[in-house]
What we know:
The complex is a heterodimer of chains A (387) and B (516).
Chain A: H1 3-7, H2 12-24, E1 32-39, E2 48-49, H3 54-59, E3 71-72, E4 78-79, H4 87-91, E5 95-102, H5 110-119, H6 131-135, E6 149-151, E7 166-168, H7 172-180, H8 194-219, H9 232-244, E8 251-257, H10 265-289, E9 296-301, E10 322-328, E11 334-336, E12 354-355, H11 356-368
Parallel strand pairs in A: 1-8, 1-9, 5-11, 5-12, 6-7, 6-8
Antiparallel strand pairs in A: 2-4, 3-4, 5-10, 9-10
Chain B: H1 14-27, H2 35-45, H3 51-58, H4 62-71, H5 89-106, H6 110-114, H7 119-137, H8 141-153, H9 158-161, H10 164-176, H11 182-190, H12 193-198, H13 212-221, H14 230-240, E1 243-245, E2 252-254, E3 264-266, E4 269-271, H15 275-284, H16 286-300, H17 307-319, H18 324-333, H19 335-338, H20 350-361, H21 369-377, H22 400-414, H23 435-442, H24 445-452, H25 478-485, H26 500-509
Antiparallel strand pairs in B: 1-2, 3-4
Helix pairs in contact in B: 2-3, 4-18, 7-10, 11-15, 13-14, 16-17, 17-18, 20-21, 21-24, 22-26, 25-26
Amino acid sequence: MDRRNFLLGAGAVSVALASRAALADTGAPPRVLLLVELKGGNDGLNTLIPYADPKYRELRPSIGVARDSVLQLDEKVGLHHKLEPLMEAWKARDFAVVQGVGYPYPNRSHFRSIEIWDTASASSQTLSEGWVAQAFKGVPLPRGAGVDSIVIDTNALPVTGPELRTIVMQDAENFLRAAQGLRDSAGMRDSGNPALRHLLDVRHEVNAAAAGLRDRLHDGASPAFAYQDPGFGRQLDLATRILMAKVPVIAIKVALNGFDTHANQVPTQERLLGILATDLAILRRNLIAADLWKNVTVLTYSEFGRRARQNASGGTDHGTAAPHFVMGGRVRGGLHGTYPSLADLQDGDLRYSVDFRTVFSTMAQGCWGVRADFGVRQPHRLDLLST
Amino acid sequence: MMIRLDRRRFLGGAASIAGFLSLPLAARASQSMGFDEARHLLSRTAFGPIPADIQSLSGIDYATAVDRMLANPRRAAVTPAPSWVNEGLKSVREEQREAVEKLRAAGTDKKQAAGIRRPIQEQGRELRNWWVEEMLVTDQPLVERMTLFWHNHFTSSMQKVRFAPALYHQNALFRREALGNFATLLKAVARDPAMLIYLDGVRSVARQPNENFGRELLELFTLGEGHYAEADIKAAARAFTGWSIDPATGAFADHVRQHDGGEKTFLGQTGRFGGEDIIAILLRNPHTAETIVRKLWLEFVSLRPDPDEVKRLAAVFRTGGYEIKPLMRAMFLSSAFRDPANRGGLIKSPVDLIVGTVRVLGLPVPDKTGLVRMMQGLGQLPFDPPNVKGWTGGETWISTYTLLLRQQFLRRMVEATTVASMDGGMAMGGGRPNRRADRKQQAPADGAAMQQLPVEGRSLRNAGETARLGPTLTGVDQEALVRALLPRQPIDGVDLAAAPGTVVASAMLDSAYQLK
């Protein structure tokens, strides 16, 4: 890169120095939460299948997963066969499934429910800051590489808030090129204009992040195993490069789209679960190979599960609770929580058994050592992560 | 990219700031406000003022200009309404159900599914395009700005309402009272079908009052947090029970038998209150006017409201019977608004940025869908505020993400056909010989939207003397172009010796262009 061209201007020298200093202050590798949003509302009943329950057949006469194809985890539940690539992690005990994750007074709007999850709010409450940002309220972060969280997706809400310096990018090359179009604004004067001050601060943030990422990613190694899916796999590829480059971020977010299966659900969900499992299994192998698996925790989430009874179009409509996956080198594998009873539905929907905010609270404590209960009165943390 | 080494030619730095300011002073007649103040007034009340508009305003007296602007506000849109605005709720829902059935039947057959339009989504798209068209063609942009302000105050979203005709009529109400009377507006909003759906008034009955509207009425629409108790919300909710909509037409309906006619105590007063009584009490409370004035200040004046001035203007507002015009007049004539230090003190909203840029460049954009998608990418999709609080606006418009996206949008606008090359770029994941093709495949929703923007193919930046500027910008010299496009001196510098097309491109890509 032509640094002279890029850093020309008043702030050039100080920025160059600052980024050098930032590179030096790397201590222990950061513990990173990798959020995987399953957009559209993944059908939990066909993900972790209560195969032994006769009610399951009754509710899912045509789209139910055949008992003999289920990957049985215990005598009651098992994984969809497309999740087979994750069985390696299951056997290694670093893959956990949290059952019945949801919240009281569930909202069935995609838009509103994902906002509830992303901001860890109560159903009736509107918050504007993401839960990860809330967890870091008053907690000093190492200023590291000029960026605290990276979103390889369009929805940045979980990591949105004044506490975090978040960068949203679809791919690193485009981001770095776009950042290069903005000269660094450190040292530029704002003439007491708060709007201009903000603008210059954001510009500086973009530049600091780009500076922190550029050299690290450039020098960083490539993942040992190639990802499969052109969309989701590409996101995980960038996430892996960021992790391997030891960019000191606390969270990375990726997403897999298309789970809103109102009609003809089976082929769609099978394809998506296949993509998810295949590339998450490759992520695990890559991070083990790079000796990073202990520093990373993968957490899936989705705005809601789907209704217990299938609809007339071979699909399912918006529902409530669903199982979610937690993976990582420090994860206590196995089943956590209890499966919602199919005999005790509420207006045809599953009753949640684990409030998603206790999962978040567990992640905040286990990944970053910060306490946050997200307004849950009696937070009982799950035994998901070892120290 | 824009960096030329001949620093003397740059605007920016102490010497050139003086040069920047000296011209209007010299040109100023005794009564005329001058170019820069005219620009300031227009940047806050119009969209992307074009040099000719600034020029014509600059010759007249400031107060006269403000009075002229407020004299005869348009009360209805110029753009013809979409065809479906009088369709009933029942018929839209039925059509939607049919379309969804057909889509289900089509399943994964993409060919078959492609021809099926769901009316709710289709009408929503047409509604947004209709409003963006109105913002582009109106001769009274202040009315559209005020309409947008009321939309952001009395929020309702397509996401929840799922009935575009009601949102169209709500938008018409906001335009009719844009510069009319706030009391009239508030009363109408409480009976507005889109609002009744959005905040669950339709479900609020004596037996089971829904508090959603009552809560937001007090917290967001009038008093503001801290000026009422939970009991007041409950009392208000009871008072509004029975106000609902006709399930067939979707029009307002007063279901008297669902109304709770019992005694309520609201903000210290007791009576058998109905909805009108609650609104009357709220209009007598001084906090209501203060809430509105503070919000208008943030929208039109600066990011830091002056509490004393807010109180003063709120008193003007309340004692004047909530007439909006005199309030806006007082605001535009206030010393805070006119303070030169305040120029460039606000951040353009996505609507501002996009509508303003299209207007300034005089770009023909027959289909507004690409513009609307860009607005969504930048965080302001009309008819879909993020939640009941509306768009937070101000500094939050610009994040690391949206700043880069804004720059990308502007680059597309100024050079539709070329892509900036990356100096000594570092390739991630191997070389990419065909970046554009790559990006097309990988582009997420926002990126895709930009590719589809129907921009006339001309590159302002690289075409030099041959760049064709639209009629909005032709014949204007470089210095006037920069002064028209930017509210303050450029942040990165603009080379005034360059061709006019290049100057326009650099000014639009300068960070100062994000300000107004």
